[in-house]
Design goal:
Layout (H helix, E strand, L loop, with lengths): L1 H45 L6 H7 L5 H14 L27 H15 L14 H12 L9 H8 L4
Length: 167
């Protein structure tokens, strides 16, 4: 009888442990599934499968890491990953050479603008001419240039204001 009691106690303990195991399996099942999904993607990347990874990961049905590795390796062989060309087709839009403009220095932009103005005759006191046909404006510019004091008691701004009657 004693042996039978011990055996019944062991069966009860075994059932309690089985219930506890089911409880922990339910708790860790989402974590395990997420880990296995990430491992499938990792295994596919290791074997060179980088296109439609989510689709191919769903096709891997292995339960253990070893089975998943074997299936990913077989899939890489079936898809002929090693035989794929390792270049990008330049005929596809967006894969061609990118033409970038050479950055311009502000000094060069200014020099070119000055040359254009000089050629059109809009810059005063140049061999090209003065400010077009506006003689009055050209005269004032000439006056400002001629009347600048050699000693700089007044600033240039104050001198110009004095010339045009502003104080």
């Amino acid at each position: 009888m004693n042996e039978e009691m011990q055996r019944l106690e062991m069966i009860k303990e075994n059932e309690a442990l089985k219930q506890q195991l089911r409880k922990y399996e339910e708790l860790y099942k989402p974590v395990y599934e997420r880990y296995m999904a990430e491992y499938k993607v990792k295994a596919l990347n290791e074997y060179g499968i980088r296109d439609n990874v989510d689709f191919w990961a769903a096709k891997l049905t292995g339960e253990t890491i070893k089975e998943i590795d074997e299936q990913a390796k077989q899939l890489a062989v079936d898809l002929r990953v090693e035989q794929r060309p390792r270049y990008v087709d330049p005929a596809i839009k967006g894969n061609g050479a990118v033409l970038r403009s050479i950055p311009k220095k502000p000094e060069d932009v200014g020099r070119k603008a000055y040359e254009r103005l000089k050629e059109s005759g809009l810059v005063p006191n140049t061999p090209g001419g003065s400010y077009g046909d506006n003689a009055r404006y050209a005269k004032k510019v000439t006056v400002i240039k001629a009347d600048l004091p050699k000693e700089k008691k007044l600033g240039i701004v104050n001198h110009v204001r004095k010339l045009f009657g502003r104080k």
